[in-house]
Structure formats: structure tokens, C-alpha cells
Amino acid sequence: MFSTVLIANRGEIALRVARTCRELGLRTVAVHSTADCDAAVVRFADQAVQIGPPAPRRSYLNIPAVIEAARTAGADAIHPGYGFLSEDPDFAQICADHDIVFIGPPPQVMQQLGNKAVARELMAEAGLPLLPGSTRPVNDLDHARAVAAATGYPLVIKAAAGGGGRGITVVRDPADLAQAWTTTRRTAQNVFGDSRVYIEKYLERARHIEVQVLVDQHGNGVHLGERDCSVQRRHQKLVEEAPAVGLSPAQRAHIGELAVQGALAVGYTGVGTLEFLMDEQGSFAFMEMNARIQVEHPVTEMVTGLDLVREQILVAAGEPLGIRQPDVVFTGASIECRINAEDPSRDFLPTPGLLSVFDVPGGPGVRIDTGYRAGAVVSQHYDSLLAKIVTWAPDRERAVARMSRCLSELRVDGPGVATTRELHQDILASETFRSGRHHTGFLDGAGSPLHLQATAGGKI
NCBIfam families, alphabetically (predicted)? Predict the structure, then answer.
């Protein structure tokens, strides 16, 4: 086992990792920018090291600074959290070159999965179903037209190195293909430094279902159930829940088996997530694999009773899995709402500023993951996530009711700071969500909670 873990992240996930490390008896080192000197994890960790100014490129994405902090502090492992360096194969390799364990999959596996087109090809070889489209990058417009003709419209062009909902363009008319292909490639180059794109069929009313997997270094793998992440805006998740509503036992077993099959086939180790689209007929198609802990991992922890960060650390330390598939027991239902410092009525414009009031809910079956408190400042330099409110109850109806109560208790205020709280309240109150009929286009149509927020200036 490790003695000291450096946490190469910030905010709620950094504090989340530090808490599990303390329970394991591991010493923790928090790295931070000058903007995060008073962050919760900085106060909680055994040691804190300032690594640069607020700009991520000069701090949290500054690999030499992170490695030097780890060496100076005597860290023998680094946990990257999510975002920042968590899916950077070069960073994982540099850790290995300095005899520091990267708590995540092997660099070569991460490299392959980081290219979404390559990941599609690998999963197809492993026997996972795919949507029609290209299994390799589309290199020129003639190639794009040929793939589009074979795929059919509507289709979606995606950045091969994409993530976070960026570098995605839906095309419904052949006349728009050329412009969409050019624009997506330009966005991919500007955002990810990689202009490669691929094409796949676009499903108008799909469900976004993902499966949590856990694989050790000895060839053992289990799935920890599925999550429904269909409530999205601009391809970014707002609400997640486990289990996915409406799936039959046979569907749950099938998608779980597919996920483990795919993870083992590519040589994955650690905690990872395979994402699928489910069409209106109930068929699944692989989309991508996230080689890290997910933002929404708490809902899986709530229904399984497992600590996924603990499992990550144990696997990285070379321990064999302590559970088999029959040992994984699912209990009740859990929902997570991401509360962001954003204004839904202004196209989700981030609203950084001082949090003069920050009162979070509590009570039975409630978990709050946050890195903020009253008096803290939401920085313009980082992600706008304020808190993840997670509820658990014996069934979905009560989990939704509990979440609605929590949202009504949440109080966030500060000069210029707006949040997504009211939008979440409207989503949970909608008949579409309560009946389990929501899909990835749920917030796009007229009459949806998001549409009503925009037309009402953010007030319903």
C-alpha cells in the first residue's frame, strides 16, 4: 500500500479523495493554485503545496510543477480526480518514469480510449454493438460524405479527442454537412489540439445509460450497475440517477456484461465508465469509455454501499478485487443534481463571485459533495460546479421527493451569483421526468423546463 497520495485536483473531488485516503490511513498532499489557498482540501490535507497562479495551464495542468510537488512531498502515488490531468496518458507515463503510481489505467490504454474513434473500433472488435458510422477518423470531406450516405441522417460529427460535451455537431440535412464538418474540425483543433473527427448516427430520443466497471490488475472485473444520465444541456449532464428507470432485469444484466467484456478486452484496470445510448426499442450502442472516476459516481456508491475511490486506490496498489459479481448488491434508488454557478436564462453563462450565503441541505439519505462554504469565492478560472446534492431512498419516487425537499432548502447567494437550483426543481417536478420518459433531447423542446426558464428570464 502507498504511504502518501498527492491529489492533483481541486474542489469537491479533491476533498472527496482526501477523505477516503484518511480513512485508509494514507498521508495526503494537496496541490493548489494561488486562487485556492483557502480551499477546503488545502485545510483538510496533511500537506499543501502551491504550484502556480490561477490559470489551469500554469497550475493544475502544469505537469512539471505537479511532479516536483510529488517528489518534494515524498508522494508515492497521485490521484488525478476527474478533469485536468485525469485522462492524460503523457502525465500517467511521466508518473511511471518517476516511480510514482498513477491511480488510473495504464498510459497505453488511456491513449487508445482517449481517441473516441479508436475506442469505437476496439469495442467493436470486443463484440460491443455500435451505432452506424465510422470506426476511424474521417479525414476529408469526400470521406465524410461517403460515411454520411451510408449512415443516414440525422447524424452527429464528434471530435475524436473530445469530452465535456464540446466538439459535437448534429447534422440533419446533407446540405449542412460540409459546414458542420469544417466547423467541428476547427473546434476540435482549438479546444483539444486534435482536429480529427468521426461520424455516427444521431438518435433524437435516446437514453444515455452508462455502466460503472471495476477491474483489477489480475484479470478480474465486475460492473457496479448502471446510471441514467439523460437529462443534459449542450451534451453535458445535469441530473444522474441509479438505477436507470424502466430497464428490465435482462437489460440490466446485458448492458453490465457488455461493459465488463469491453473493459477486459482493452486491458483496462481501475474504476471506469462505459457510456451507451439506448434507442426507443431498448437496444444499446456503445459511445465511449471514460478512463477515470466520474462526477456522478456518488449515486453508484449510494446504491451499492461501495467507496469507489477506495477501490481505485486498492487496485492501483496491486490488490485483487475483494468482490465478485454476485457480491454486488443494489439497494434503493439514488439521484444526483449538479448545482452550478450558472444562469440558465442566459445560456448557462457562468456566474463567478463571492458566496455570501451557502447553506446546504441535510437529513436522512442526503449527501453533499462540495468544496465551498459561505465566504468562499467561485473563481472564473475553473469549472462552475458548486455542489453535488445526492439523495437515496428505498425507491425512486421517494428519492425524487427527497431531492425536491433538498433543493427547496438550498440557499446560495452572492453578488452576481446565479445557480441552476430552480431549473433542477422544474426538472424534478415535470411529469416527463417523474414518469421516466425523459431522454437526451428532453431539455431542448418547447415547453421543457429549460425552455420555460429561458422565456421567463429564469423565473418560473
Answer: PRK08591.1
> Percent of the chain at pLDDT above 90?
90
Structural domains in the chain, CATH included, are 4-103 (3.40.50.20), 132-201 (3.30.1490.20), 207-455 (3.30.470.20)
* Distance in angstroms (rounded) separating the CA atoms of residues 141 and 184: 12
> How many distinct helices (H) and strands (E) make up the chain?
15, 22
Whether residue 371 contacts residue 10, with contact meaning beta carbons closer than 8 Å, is answered with: yes
Based on C-alpha coordinates, what's the Rg of the chain?
21
Residues 134-176: pLDDT tens digits? Answer: 988 998 999 999 999 999 999 999 999 887 778 999 999 999 9
Write the DSSP string, 402-447. HHHHHHHH-EEE-TT---SHHHHHHHHHSHHHHTT---TTTTTSTT
pLDDT in tens, 109-140: 999 999 999 999 999 999 999 999 998 899 89
Q: With bands split at pLDDT 50, 70 and 90, how would you rate the model's confidence at 355?
A: very high
Report CA 84 to chain centroid distance, whole Å. Answer: 12
Note the pLDDT of residue 453: 57
Output the CA–CA distances (angstroms, integers) from residue 435 to 115, 124, 216, 400, in the order listed: 36, 33, 38, 11
How many angstroms separate the CA atoms of 9 and 99, rounded?
20
> For 24-74, what is each residue's pLDDT tens digit?
999 999 999 999 999 999 999 999 999 999 999 999 999 999 999 999 999
Question: What is the helix, strand, coil percentage profile of the chain, to 5?
Answer: 35, 25, 35
Residue 455 DSSP SS3: helix
Which residues on neighbouring strands pair with residue 49, listed in sequence order? 31
Place of cell 486562487: 35
pTM, 2 dp: 0.93
| Residue found by looking up cell 430552480 in the block | 422
Give the alpha-carbon dihedral of 288, 18, 102, 222, to 10 degrees.
-50
Q: How confident is the model at residue 452 (pLDDT cuts 50, 70, 90)?
A: low
Q: For residue 457, is pLDDT > 50?
A: no
> At CB < 8 A and 24+ separation, what contacts does 93-98 make?
94/63, 94/67, 95/67, 95/70, 98/67, 98/70, 98/71
Cα–Cα distance between 277 and 285 in angstroms, integer? 5
Catalytic (active-site) positions: 292
Strand partners, 377: 354
Cα separation, 289 vs 260, in Å, equals: 12
